[in-house]
UniProtKB/TrEMBL annotation:
<keyword id="KW-0547">Nucleotide-binding</keyword>
<keyword id="KW-0677">Repeat</keyword>
<dbReference type="InterPro" id="IPR027417">
    <property type="entry name" value="P-loop_NTPase"/>
</dbReference>
<feature type="domain" description="ABC transporter">
    <location>
        <begin position="41"/>
        <end position="271"/>
    </location>
</feature>
<dbReference type="InterPro" id="IPR003439">
    <property type="entry name" value="ABC_transporter-like_ATP-bd"/>
</dbReference>
<dbReference type="GO" id="GO:0005524">
    <property type="term" value="F:ATP binding"/>
</dbReference>
<keyword id="KW-0067">ATP-binding</keyword>
<keyword id="KW-1133">Transmembrane helix</keyword>
<dbReference type="InterPro" id="IPR003593">
    <property type="entry name" value="AAA+_ATPase"/>
</dbReference>
<dbReference type="GO" id="GO:0016887">
    <property type="term" value="F:ATP hydrolysis activity"/>
</dbReference>
<dbReference type="InterPro" id="IPR036640">
    <property type="entry name" value="ABC1_TM_sf"/>
</dbReference>
<keyword id="KW-0812">Transmembrane</keyword>
<dbReference type="InterPro" id="IPR039421">
    <property type="entry name" value="Type_1_exporter"/>
</dbReference>
<keyword id="KW-0325">Glycoprotein</keyword>
<protein>
    <recommendedName>
        <fullName>ABC transporter domain-containing protein</fullName>
    </recommendedName>
</protein>
<dbReference type="Pfam" id="PF00005">
    <property type="entry name" value="ABC_tran"/>
</dbReference>
<dbReference type="InterPro" id="IPR017871">
    <property type="entry name" value="ABC_transporter-like_CS"/>
</dbReference>
């Protein structure tokens, strides 16, 4: 009887999850399509708190503008709201008030697939699927050709180690990429993000979990793909933001300083 009761309880939770209609529906085809964009990104007077902690305000009138083709580094202590910027631009969440704009258009008025198709995301912990390297890269662009896959691998500094593998691009990565090192997994994730040639690139502490040598290789790849794209870099390490056009220091959900001078570098070093 205990087993039946536990199974019934588990089934109830499962069906509740299946029937739940998310506030941000990825299958919703209403809204404008983004055919082509310049890549201008702006958060305007944003107020936001996470659904699990509605009483804790993360952003209280937060504003940030990143001009097309430039790199903005966002630095600050843990919990200051750096990664929340990435989540809002990707529209994982909607703000309670204020606007998130791409080329001056509120992303709420755009089809979600259209928005995310123009954005590449590389996070701290790359998520790889239990399939081949080729398939993992192809998830970034449906119907990608082998030439496009190899070009993305070259840009991400992944081609050299892939070519040395016995099965090359058909090598299985294992569960969560267990057959690859941290640096190799991150380079596959970069290739997946870059294969669709996104106008906007989001880097959420993409090198923070790597050792020094892997970080150097991955950072070289990131520097290569950031050219001529609007890039938001969430970072703790100085090496990650050296080439940024502008540095924004975030504290308690607000930008306290912005620019590119030694004062900001000092803030970063003290984090």
């Amino acid at each position: 009887m205990t087993a039946f009761a536990e199974g019934q309880s588990a089934a109830h939770r499962l069906f509740t999850t299946i029937k739940r209609k998310p506030e941000i529906d990825p299958d919703d085809k209403t809204g404008r399509q983004l055919e082509d964009i310049k890549g201008d990104v702006e958060l305007r007077d944003v107020y936001f708190s996470y659904p699990a902690r509605p009483e804790q305000l993360i952003f209280d009138g937060f504003s940030l503008h990143v001009s097309s083709g430039t790199t903005m580094a966002i630095v600050g202590e843990s919990g200051s709201g750096k990664s929340t910027v990435i989540s809002l631009v990707e529209r994982f969440y909607d703000p309670q008030a204020g606007e998130v704009l791409i080329d001056g258009i509120n992303i709420k008025s755009l089809q979600l697939d259209s928005v995310r198709g123009k954005i590449g995301l590389v996070s701290q912990e790359p998520l790889l699927f239990m399939t081949s390297i080729k398939d993992n890269i192809t998830y970034g662009k449906e119907g990608a050709t082998i030439e496009e896959i190899k070009r993305a691998a070259e840009l991400s500094n992944a081609a050299n180690f892939i070519d040395k593998l016995p099965n090359g691009y058909d090598t299985m990565v294992g569960q969560r990429g267990a057959q690859l090192s941290g640096g190799q997994k991150q380079r596959i994730a970069i290739a997946r993000a870059i294969i669709k040639n996104p106008k906007i690139l989001l880097l959420d502490e993409a090198t923070s979990a790597l050792d020094v040598e892997s970080e150097r290789i991955v950072q070289e790849a990131l520097n290569r793909i950031m050219v001529d794209r609007t890039t938001l870099v969430v970072a703790h390490r100085l090496t990650t933001v050296r080439n940024a056009d502008c540095i924004s220091v975030v504290q308690q959900g607000k930008i306290v300083e912005q620019g590119q001078d030694y004062i900001l570098i000092t803030h970063l070093l003290l984090i």
